[in-house]
Amino acid sequence: MAALGPGFSGGDRIFLELAKRWQKKFPVRIYVWEEGRQMCRRHALNPSKNLKFVIWKMGDWGRAGFYVNYLARIVRSIIGAFQLNLRNEASTYVYSASDFWMDALPGWILKLRFPKITWVGTFYLAAPSPFKGFKEEGEFRLPTIKSIFYWLQQQPIYWLIKIFSDKVFVTSQPDAKRFPKHERQGKIVVARGGVYVPKKVEKMKRIYDGLFLGRFHPQKGVTELVDIWEKVVAKRPKARLVMIGDGPLMDDVKAKIKEKNLGKNIELAGYLPDGKKKYDLFQKGKIFMHSAVYDSGGMACAEGMAWGMPGVSFNLEALKTYYPKGVLKAPINDFDAYARLVLKLLKDSTLYNKTTKDAVELVRQYWDWDRRAEDILVQITKPRG
Fold this sequence. Notes:
By secondary structure, the protein is of the alpha/beta class. The chain is built from 14 helices and twelve strands.
């Protein structure tokens, strides 16, 4: 119910890939509104013998302004949760695809109405402090109304999940500390996600020195990446970066590229769904630029690693366990150090080959979607105790 527009989050990816695989084992029913159904269709999640969609229609409310539409989806999901009847209560698992109210409140309501169900809550990204913003080690700043609202709206859901959920999905081990009771009782599932691992990577000329994939959002460090690439270009004038994605900071990125005269060095590919065009670019990239400045993990880097790219990131807390190898890490907010690591990989073939090998090994061992889906299923079906 939280899906809106062409954007696609890591939580969306986890939900879609798990549903594709779990339907082979048991019946799956998915409750969405019209745009949620479109998102599933775009990513090849379609009805089958074991997978059914129930569309909670929004009608004219779906075409209203953002805030009216947002509130209307919350109301519609609450109504839907009260209308829903579950026959096989003890064997039913209710999975909230996000911690947004329209996804999480139905799970909580169903848990109250049918206590024997297993409610799986998700808490993939803690809203940052309004006084720091999307910076893991950010300095004090005056909060905006938007940042205060984002933080405040997550707090009630966090406590509902903490108190009422039977299992909790988080994306990295450090986030488990937010749910101490669940962690003690073995009810935390570090979902982390997975990636498509190609059986063969074609030998294409890697014409892009760097490749970025992700939402153009403050937490992804997209404007910071332009600053970093300026430093790379200062030492390597013909260095090329391709950025795949779209989002609210697209205009800011374009303006910064123009300001720094990097039009010949940075190419904006826009949003690309899974498919040949996206994967061809992956095979043309040398280094995956995981420039996030605030994150709970991030599957995008693993996706690039699967196609033979080592990564460079900031040394965020979650990434220490997410990517123990295959990714070189710079001190947080140190753009010079980040650029130096990129240049070192491009210059030192021995280091590049070793880091690439580590990246591919890590992904093949821990990130294959079939393996991840099976492992997660085993964890959530353990007895509640």
